[in-house]
Amino acid sequence: MSASLLRRGLELLEAPGRGKAPPGLRQERAGPRAAGAARRRKAAAEPRRNKATVKGRVVKSAIEEYHKKKAVNHLSENLQYMLKRRLVANKAITEQVLVQNRGRKSKDQPPKKVAKKKPQGTVFTEEDFRKFEREYFGRP
């Protein structure tokens, strides 16, 4: 412990009225250090305001701050806004925007559209079959 802390502790434990000697009986120190020590003692005796606080500052509740900064779900409001709008964008414009936003990687490319093959029908009609039947089998 330093000597100054020890002195302060003893001053706190002393009985009231016995703490300090009258100014006339006090021993004066000579030299440049004495003036600095006297200034420090005088400054320590006076109560100071806390410099860490700001004048007029209000202590905020941590719970209120949490609720203020908590994420808010805007899904229902956004859905209402979107459903109110009946404007439908042009198909060509939407395709162009999608192409611009698509990446160059193969995983970003949409699958190629395969042209559906039409089922091959017969060239012959039902009447052609009947005609062939008559000619081949000889039935009228």
Automatic annotation (TrEMBL):
Keywords: Nucleus. Residues 13-56, 98-124 are annotated as: Disordered. The gene is Rps19bp1. It is found in: Nucleus, Nucleolus. This is Active regulator of SIRT1. Belongs to the AROS family. GO terms for molecular function: enzyme binding. GO terms for cellular component: nucleolus. The keyword Nucleus applies. It holds the Pfam family AROS. InterPro entries: AROS.
